[in-house]
Amino acid sequence: MSQSTVPRPPLPRESGGPPQKPAAARKAPRRRRGGDHRLAGGIGLRHRVRRDWVLVLMTLPAVLLLVVFAYIPIAGNVIAFQFYSPYAGDGFFDAMANSAWTGMENFQRMLDDRDFWNAVQNTLMFSSLQLLLFFPVPIALALLINSILHSKVRAWAQAVLYLPHFFSWVLVITVFQQMFGGAGLVAQLARDWGLTDSFDLMTDPGFFKWLITAQVIWKDAGWGIIVFLAALSMVNTELYESAAVDGAGRWRRMWHVTLPALRPVIALLLVLQVGNMLTVGSEQFLIQRTAVGPGASEVLDTYVWNRGIANGDFSYAAAIGIVKGVFSLALVLAANRVAHAMGEQGVYSRR
Amino acid sequence: MSAITDTSVLVEDKEEKGKRQRPAWEEQPTRVGLTAKGAILGIALLAILFPIWIVLITSLSDAETVSRAGGLVVWPDGISFDAYRELLSGGEVSRAMMVSIGVTVVGTTFSMAVSVLAAYGLSRIGSLWHRGLLFTLLATMFFGGAGIIPTYLLIQSLGLMNTYAALILPMAVNVFNILVLRAFFMNVGQEIIDSARIDGAGEFRILWQMVLPLSRAVLAVIALFYAVAYWGNWFAGFIYINDQEKLPLQNVLQQIVLANERPAGMAQIIGTGQISSISVQTAVMILALLPVAILSPFVQRHFKKGMLIGAVKG
Q: Which of A62, A192, B73, B240 is 20 to 30 A from B114, comparing alpha carbons?
């Protein structure tokens, strides 16, 4: 998607600054660098600096923050190839420089680590469940909302459906706690009706996968409809009309007109979802980890936190993070390739 | 997935104004169909609103009503603000509220300033180092999270542990938000910018007096995204803040409702039966939910205006 967000008109818009002389005529072999080559006349670097330094200055704070909080941590991942000890030096970099290199040892440890494989298994289970149960819900809801003609009803329904997306995970989980927890509403009713005294879905390890999926659906299914509604609003109504004239009923129109219109969006989101198979959201699991125990709730992200930050095994945890990142990237590429094979655009186009 | 979803917020429902007419070729809806539709939508909306209702009503009930209901209250029997009065009159929850409000206000302001400047700085294609700077931003989207371990160690060695800065700085820049702002700034009519420049306005002045007033709707939406992110952030408090005194509201909410810890100062009042502990829990939940529930519909409305601006241009 990044490519599409960078439109490249044939000619840049000339901004003010000093009047531009036909510089290309003066300097014959022009250096072609940056966006310069797209300038028809071409102006010298000195003029461009004079003209644009304010723009560069404006971008600088964001770039600096990203360098510190995104690029340096990416580089910091080299500790995965070390036995990093925070006591080896003064601060992160000093300690890194003084820590012993171990090559691939941290990666080899993973193979025999049963907790790691448990986390992998759990992660894949949670994400497949979400793929099966969560993914279709926004599509169905969007079709439903789209079929409502009354604009007031639509607006209200959308406002309510979007709301939980803006709630924090803690809030969503506490809402579930009040509904299905040991002191929650359902437990209350079960006690009143003499059914059971110990109803508590929030601490049941066997039920945890359904609980997680239900929380995801409650929080984000409504928000997910937006992208489908946008795609639906682009559909040419003449298609419906001619389909209707040809005798297609409402279900056939949905099958042959509506769903094909959604196909590219569905394919795109599926690719992204598959790419995120190994990321199921650490907050949701960290918060509920103590209630159901690590056996049922440990996923890759919580395992990284547990090994690295809780137990101080920084290098090993960083190694797991790297493996996760590499596999995720491979998954996106593979899913995108499948999407292309099926004639879809996917995340990036084949060019 | 969120990234894609978020973009489309900006191209939402152009047809929303006025009621749509049913096209001539479309069948009249059947009774069964309408009922089924209504039922499904009704269930979906209830699934969202009913829990919020219960939580709200319980937080507004006095100890007697709560004990009569045996826990959560479904139907109100008199309204009492005791739980809120107690929670907000000093003590742990008031303090956590202040931390969260402060972090959200400062963080959102800071993020908006940085993002708007960067988005404007990158909005002129072909400007100096434009491609390099843009790529620097975009590349971080592909790497995703750099991993919590190196980030944690970095925060530690920068001396940010246990500071409010740790709740703001690591998440201050969201590249996706910058890209959305940039797309809008690029849509602002070039003629307007050119005429301002001919009148002698510098870049800052153009941004402040021309571009920003025209982009109010998208600014509101992006500010909401940042504010929601800061307000709802639990993770940073969890890993970077060890000091109970500095924890933001989300972390205190987790302690009170999920770990069932009573906030400091509340113990006696709950003990004497003036307020039930479930009222306290639900009241904290409402406090955590309120800003978002108030802001998001307001911004949704704002949003449609932004759409019109976009439509006029196109």
A: B240
Cα–Cα distance, A293 to A205 (Å, whole number): 7
CA distances from B226 to A92, A225, B57, B112, B219 (A): 29, 21, 30, 8, 10
Other Cβ atoms within 10 Å of A37 Cβ, number: 11
First to last CA, chain B: 27
Which residues on A lie below 8 Å from B122 (Cβ)? 55, 59
Bridge partners for A101 per DSSP: A82
What lies within 8 Å, CB to CB, of B62 at 6+ separation is: B78, B80, B82, B275, B279
* Helix orientation angle between A208-233 and A169-180, rounded to the nearest 10 degrees: 120
Q: What is the DSSP string of A280-317?
A: --HHHHHHHHHHH-HHHH--HHHHHIIIIIIT--HHHH
DSSP structure class, residue A13? P
Which among B215, B237, B116, B125 is positioned nearest to B171, based on CA atoms? Answer: B237
Nearest to B86 by CA among B271, B293, B234, B294: B271
C-beta separation of A1 from B3 below 8 A: yes
Cα separation, A346 vs A351, whole angstroms: 12
Count H helices and E strands in chain A, helices first: 18, 2
Strand, coil or helix: A112 = coil
- Of the candidates B14, B27, B202, the beta carbon closest to that of A54 is on B202
Q: What share of chain A is helix, strand, coil (3-state, %, to 5)?
A: 70, 0, 25
Q: How many CB atoms lie within 10 A of CB A18?
A: 10
d(CA B156, CA B170): 12
* pLDDT score for B144: 60
Model pLDDT, residue A350: 55
- Contact predicate B171/B108, CB 8 Å: no
Q: What angle do CA B88, B91, B93 make, to 5 degrees?
A: 60
- pLDDT profile of chain A (351 residues), mean per 10: 42 44 46 42 77 92 95 91 88 87 92 95 95 95 89 88 94 95 89 85 92 96 87 85 86 90 89 88 90 91 93 94 90 89 74 48
Cβ atoms within 10 Å, residue A274: 18
Q: How far apart are CA A201 and CA A119, in angstroms?
A: 22
Test B117 with A61 for CB contact under 8 angstroms: yes
For B144, which residue in chain A has the nearest alpha carbon?
A325
Cβ B125–A35 below 8 Å, yes or no?
Answer: yes
pLDDT tens-digit profile of B158-198?
Answer: 999 999 999 999 999 999 899 889 988 888 877 888 888 88
What is d(CA A8, CA A28) in angstroms, rounded to the nearest whole number?
26
pLDDT of residue A111: 94
Q: pTM (2 decimals)? A: 0.86
Two tokens at B81?
A: 């603000």
Regions of chain B where pLDDT drops below 50: 1-18, 305-314
| Angle between helical axes of A45-66 and B130-143 (0-180°, round to 10) | 20
Task: Please tell me the predicted confidence (pLDDT) of residue A11.
Answer: 44
Of B81, B59, B88, B82, which Cα lies nearest the Cα of B71?
B59
Q: What per-residue confidence (pLDDT) applies to A31? A: 44
How far is it, in rounded angstroms, from Cα A262 to Cα A246?
Answer: 22
Q: Which residue of B has its CA nearest to A175?
A: B51
The secondary structure element, H or E, covering residue A101 is strand A100-101
Interatomic CA distance for residues B249 and B237, integer angstroms:
9
Per-residue pLDDT, B191? 83
pLDDT digits (tens, 9 = 90+) for B239-257: 999 999 999 999 999 999 9
| Among the partner residues B51, B136, B238, nearest to A63 by beta-carbon distance | B136
